[in-house]
Amino acid sequence: MDDKTQWLNDFIAEVVDGWMLQDLERLSNDIPHRPGEAGNCNFPIALYIFACLEFLGHLTSQKLIPDNQSGYSRDRIMSYIDNFFPQEFVQKIQPHRNNFVNVFRNGLAHEYFAKSAGISRTESLPLQADSEGRLILDADRFAEAFKLSVERLKEGIKTDGNLVDRIVDRYNDSYQSSLHFRVTSTSTSVSTASIAPPTNLTTTTMPPPPKSSKP
After folding, report:
1. Rounded to an integer, what distance in angstroms lies between the CA atom of residue 68 and that of residue 24?
2. Per-residue pLDDT of the chain (215 residues; tens, 9 = 90+)
3. ∠ CA 102-108-111 to the nearest 5 degrees?
4. Which residues of 118-145 are buried (b: 16+ CB within 10 A; e: fewer)?
């Protein structure tokens, strides 16, 4: 196994299976839905999944989607959904794909509420319209689809060397770029990098990604 594949396997195990999915499991299972009560975490579950999708969409998209591209959050999220989500989920959102990210991700992230839509934990379908025509995204069905997508991502890594290269090289580029961010006070200099190499949970050390193979 080459260095890139080994690093990526460790990355998936720690960051995706560990941090992403275990946090999602805690949100979903430790906070079961209680009908008619507050505190069901509908919004946090949905917004958290969108954050994961945007990150993974950046790493996996066939064509690089740069930060300065208009609508890059939407394009990264939809790229990941199209490539890795179960087809049933993709088909359900197909009629609304042009607005899906704006209504739900952007609404939750910037306006607290989804835009003229709702987040549920009681529906059997991932996305449907209510009696007044408002879209309802079910957070638990969204979570189930995301978990299945991670399994498809792992299968892709096993068979697609180009996918391995894209993920490791793009993560490495983001990691290197993040090293340039610093906050300086009169006595200390603190890194504010938003991306860092994973830390192995048993040894607390893990090397940064292998150097990019790009010229």
Report:
1. 29
2. 688 899 999 999 999 999 999 999 999 888 888 888 888 899 999 999 999 999 999 999 999 999 989 999 999 999 999 999 999 999 999 999 999 999 999 999 999 999 999 999 988 899 999 888 899 999 999 999 999 999 999 999 999 999 999 999 999 888 877 766 654 444 444 444 345 555 444 433 344 666 544 43
3. 90
4. ebbbebeebbeeeeeeebbbbbbbbbeb
Q: In sequence order, what DSSP letters do the residues of 107-154 get, joined into one string?
A: HHHHHSS-TTEEEESS-SSSEEE-TTS-EEEEHHHHHHHHHHHHHHHH
- Do 64 and 170 touch, CB atoms closer than 8 A? yes
For 31-133, where are the alpha helices, taking DSSP H only?
A: 42-60, 72-84, 87-93, 97-100, 107-111
CA dihedral 151, 165, 207, 80 (to 10 degrees): -40
Q: Which two tokens stand for residue 208?
A: 């940064």
Cβ–Cβ < 8 Å for 85, 49: no
Q: Which residue has the tokens 């190499």?
A: 197
How many Å from the N-terminal Cα to the C-terminal Cα in the chain? 23
